[in-house]
Specification:
This protein is α/β, with parallel strands linked by helices. It contains 15 helices and 7 strands. The strands form 2 sheets. Strands 3-7-5-6-4 form a 5-stranded mixed β-sheet, with helices on both faces. Strands 1-2 form a two-stranded antiparallel sheet.
Length: 387
């Protein structure tokens, strides 16, 4: 342990979205993947994207029949205001071409929206949900305010249905890593999606349901002060990080130390019943429940947050602390931890106060293999305090 105290405590910066604090500390993953074995350049033959045109009616039918998935319970869709939604509809009525959409095709022929989710969700809500959708508001050029789809003249309805959308379809033979990189390249419009939001859009229902059930646990919400349903899906990412390290282990990360790649691999594992049986999923969820229960038992309201000596206020959740301490505490018996709680807290706070290497490991370049390894070793060591 590096015992020389830092001259100045590193500033804790809370992430903000849409003007609101998110409760999660900004993370600097840095260039931790710089020493990942080179798997690029991609083979051009493996990158298969075709361009097609679909009528909006066709697209909406595909959504209704389930052959085009809009990534259910995606929170970011709620960010659009009524005026933004209405102006999208107005653009369609004015026959202003919309930016191209991107779909990922599955091996079974079904599609998932990987770019254009908010636009398609908005149009589907307006046209097909009708009374449950929204009424036009704040339109700039057309006098159709306060109207639902069914209130529009027939010629307007027909124009909406006949609108042609340009869709780039990513072939199912495209490797997952390539597909993820394609998404990151095109993810530039509006407010760009973060890494977990991208994974959510590109994953299957099984992984989404597993992560959703993990973050819906009372123990998780107690330990994180109610993070379930986080608008940027930071709750799902934290659950996924636990799953990745619990299922794959540190050796797997060290072999290819890049957090995005590691979490993509874990997501694919959660999606595949052959790679991860239902019994193993139950074991994962039980371990996660134990980790959350134990974290709150030991650290109470400061669980997964920086809490050096002398600090009394509660900092935002730190994802590096979450992954390392949840894994460290998961195997322990609660009665054992309760008897040693004071010693564990003292060891952890002392490390957060005076161990500069540890502070670096949970603050900057958090994906660096040496820093990941150090913070996991430190949490495991401190969890044994008082034994």
């Amino acid at each position: 342990m590096t015992t020389a105290r830092a001259q100045e405590e590193p500033e804790v910066v809370e992430d903000v979205f849409d003007g609101l604090a998110t409760g999660v500390e900004v993370e600097d993953e840095g260039g931790g993947g710089a020493d990942v074995p080179i798997v690029r350049p991609w083979d051009p033959a493996s990158i298969r994207v075709t361009t097609n045109q679909f009528s909006l009616r066709n697209i909406l039918d595909m959504i209704d029949e389930g052959s085009l998935e809009l990534a259910p319970d995606f929170q970011r869709g709620k960010v659009w205001k009524a005026e933004q939604k209405s102006r999208l509809v107005e653009s369609v009525l004015l026959q202003i071409p919309l930016p191209a959409f991107y779909f990922a095709e599955d091996s079974d022929g079904a599609f998932r929206v990987v770019d254009g989710l908010q636009r398609l969700s908005t149009l589907h809500s307006f046209v097909r949900e009708n009374a449950q959708g929204f009424r036009l508001k704040g339109m700039e050029y057309l006098n159709e305010n306060n109207k639902s789809f069914s209130d529009l003249p027939v010629q307007w309805q027909r124009r909406i249905y006949n609108t042609q959308l340009v869709v780039n379809v990513i072939d199912p033979t495209t490797p997952p890593d390539v597909m993820y990189d394609i998404f990151k390249r095109i993810n530039t419009g509006g407010t760009p999606l973060n890494a977990q939001e991208i994974r959510h859009c590109m994953s299957r229902a099984r992984s989404r349901e597993i992560l959703k059930s993990m973050t819906a646990m009372d123990e998780f919400n107690t330990a994180t002060n109610g993070m379930h349903g986080h608008i940027r899906m930071n709750d799902r990412e934290m659950a996924l990080r636990f799953a990745a390290f619990w299922l794959l282990g540190m050796d797997a990360y060290m072999a290819r130390p890049a957090m995005d790649l590691f979490l993509e691999r874990a997501t694919r594992m959660l999606d595949d019943p052959e790679a991860l049986s239902d019994t193993r999923v139950d074991e994962l969820c039980a371990a996660f429940r134990s980790a959350m229960l134990n974290a709150h038992l030991v650290f109470e309201e400061h669980a997964f947050r920086k809490w050096p000596n002398g600090v009394t206020g509660r900092n935002p959740i730190n994802r590096a602390l979450f992954e390392s301490w949840s894994i460290a505490l998961a195997p322990y018996d609660s009665a054992d931890l309760r008897s040693r709680r004071t010693d564990i807290v003292s060891a952890a706070r002392s490390r957060m106060t005076s161990d500069i290497d540890y502070l670096d490991a949970i603050t900057a370049s958090t994906s660096d293999r040496r820093r990941v390894e150090y913070r996991f070793q430190a949490a495991a060591e401190d969890a044994k305090a008082g034994t």
